[in-house]
Amino acid sequence: MNLPVWQVTNAIPLTPDKAVLATTSYSRTRHPEISTWDVDDIELQKEFGIANTWIYNVSLKDPQSGTLEYGIKVLMDGSIWKPTKEKRH
Q1: Counting Cβ atoms within 10 Å, is residue 59 exposed (0-12), middle (13-18) or buried (19+)?
Q2: d(CA 42, CA 56)
Q3: How many CA atoms lie within 13 A of 70 on its CB side?
Q4: What is the Cα–Cα distance from 29 to 27, expressed in whole angstroms?
Q5: What tens digit of pLDDT does each residue of 32-72 get?
Q6: Alpha helix positions (H), 1-89
């Protein structure tokens, strides 16, 4: 992956507000019936095993139905990490 490298003493490549926008946009594709999401939790964490790779872990909640989108990982380039079942070689 060609992700921005971030040293914690430098400006962050993706701000929390942009991470939330990426997450809400992604969640709208998964749940088009939900028009408004509230941020339930947002966390910045170092990705284990990959040097200087940080991600946002965002959880959203629909205030009307209580539907929860939990633990959406946003990479520092603004993309959403989507796990695959492909084996690495």
Answers
A1: middle
A2: 7
A3: 3
A4: 5
A5: 999 999 999 999 998 866 667 899 999 999 999 999 999 99
A6: 16-30
Other C-beta atoms closer than 10 Å to the C-beta of 74 total 24
Closest CA to 74 of 28, 14, 29, 32: 14
Q: What is the pTM of this model?
A: 0.84
pLDDT of residue 47: 80
Burial, 5: exposed, middle or buried (Cβ in 10 Å; 0-12, 13-18, 19+)? exposed
Distance set, CA 36 to CA 27, 31, 40, 43, 77 (Å): 10, 10, 12, 20, 24
Which has the closest alpha carbon to 58: 70, 46, 75? 70
Please enumerate in sequence order all residues whose Cβ is within 8 A of that of 55, keeping only pairs 6 or more positions apart, or say none: 44, 45, 47, 73, 74, 75, 76, 81
